[in-house]
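Researcher: Here's a chain I'd like modeled. Treat it as a single chain, no partners, no ligands.
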Amino acid sequence: METWIIYALLASAFAGLTAVLAKIGISGVNSHLATAIRTVVIVVFSWLMVFIVGSFSELTAVSGRTWLFLIASGLATGASWLCFFYALKFGTVSQVSPLKKSSMVLTIILAFLILGEPFGLWQMIGMSFIIIGTLLMLKLKKKNPSETTTEKGGNWLLFGLLASVFASLVTILGAIGIADVEANLGNAIRVVVVLIASWGMVFLTDNHKGIREIDKKNWLFLILSGLATGGSWLFFFRALQIGPASGVVPIDKLSILLNILFARIFLKEKQSPKQLAGLACLTVGTLLLVLM
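Model: Modeled as a single isolated chain. Structure tokens:
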């Protein structure tokens, strides 16, 4: 098994924990504030890894082009997180996670157009399975289209879609940005951008005052979620540095299996036969993209 596949599998395992831990952590907490708190944990974790591997000295050698794409990737990451955790606050893990994972469809198209990665019949078939699987798992009722919006106006479907689009941009911009820089250092630079963007949003919306109202349970799960995200990122961008984006991304998205499993165990979310069929389609589509 190639090294990048092992890294991608480890990234997927950590990512599988993130959504469930975050879902528990953001209960009763403003989604922008929760995102900003998680980002602090990820920044500390990421820069700790930079010092452990000794890549801090390479900071001055980072080119202007690399800075540009890392910053752009960081901004896209911040936008994706804000949308994802807003959607997660109002929707279930079983609904929101598949929607975000569908970003691999756009990622593969962009990887073909921008990075010149292969795109053929098997990619088209795999993408078709992913699209069908995502639609099956959304669990929307035609009779009541307002179901995607809570009484508080939280449209999880719209923000889930936006999170998916931004996540695709994260991968492509990140793949270009880390091409000439050590993976841990590139990731650490990105998360500083996310930190600034997320806390800027918190103060812009005047939600910083809510930090005093967060209880110990929320703090614990937000921190654990941040650590899981940090671990996932480290392995993901290392895999992305040595492997093809069209291969790394689908493996990482297999975390949907863990998302659903943990959501069922810890959040008591139940999946209908239709959703399970959708999960099967997502898995088949992902495996086709990886193996073919």
